[in-house]
Amino acid sequence: MITGPGLLFVVSGPSGAGKDTLVDALLARLPRLRYSISATTRAPRAGEEEGKHYFFLSRDAFERRLAAGELLEWREYNGNLYGTPRDYIERTIAQGYDLIMKPEVNGALAVKAAYADAVLIFLAPDRFPILRERLTARRTETTEQIARRLEIAEEEMKFVRSFDYIVVNAQGRPQEAIGDLEAILRAERCRIHRYTEETIENIRRP
Amino acid sequence: MITGPGLLFVVSGPSGAGKDTLVDALLARLPRLRYSISATTRAPRAGEEEGKHYFFLSRDAFERRLAAGELLEWREYNGNLYGTPRDYIERTIAQGYDLIMKPEVNGALAVKAAYADAVLIFLAPDRFPILRERLTARRTETTEQIARRLEIAEEEMKFVRSFDYIVVNAQGRPQEAIGDLEAILRAERCRIHRYTEETIENIRRP
Fold first, then answer.
1. Among A115, A158, B83, B151, which is disulfide-ready with B74 (CB 3.0 to 4.6 Å)?
2. Reported ipTM
3. Domain spanning B8-189: which CATH class is it, in words?
């Protein structure tokens, strides 16, 4: 029986490693796992709900929260700000849910720096040439954009030792990577530092 | 795909926590997992084979190996010596097999001291009164012997923070404990310090 607070899992790694597919698969399988909701200054699109898809903030409000240290990590994309609100993370975890997010590598490192209990998982392809194949197959980016992504991937690999785990998403065997991720999520709950003195005392109680 | 050297898993905890049943279940499910073979000065019984059930040693040979630091842990039981040979552990792990053993708590701590890569798992009941029930149900020991085991269990719980994981074997739900153990065995292989620089370099290779 799983009880107690949830855990924060951060899945990161180079573009083309398969983060989206694998995180979606985990969310579909694990009822206790929720996707971490970001705050953004972007305007809501049709059908997007406050507190479900995003927390929508004015630029002013976002910047105030940033300055107050209330965002675990943030980034700018297409002129809009995105970030991870600490209060939402802490509230959801206190309710007993596990959270998962998939920031870029520098975002993952920022989360760990701000929230030491986070579990960082680096998702890697079995070989770098796979990244090029996957990015090319998407047909959404130019050759130059793909070359740039591969340069970034090379750079990101330098930070792999700051992560807690590596999961290799081998070409054609996504079920193995999903199995590894599920095992990590389950095993982390059994790690000794997750047990409070109170839980241990409860076991001993006559 | 799992490659590279195996890992050494040490499952310990109080008598009655369910080590034997759970370790047998794991061995039946995981083809890559082997039970660690002990060295002993006890004479072979009918059907026992050298290097399969035990490594049979004369007392002299056992004591020489002990003095030479070739045993990870040892204990005396019924006038015979038992111990875990380091060379066997290292050879089996190098062949890519995972090993599991179930020493007493002080043996588990000795293994960790001698072999820092070992993964220590403390198997606990959900409540201590369960231990008394299980030990009584065995009908193999007197009330005094059971009382002594419970005292030892109380003592052993003091060392729980030296372990890497706690798995709670809740009454009536052994499948959950087996699932936790399987997850730990799988997740440990993904931990960052299990990856050599060479493995990481192989991922990057163009």
1. B83
2. 0.92
3. alpha beta
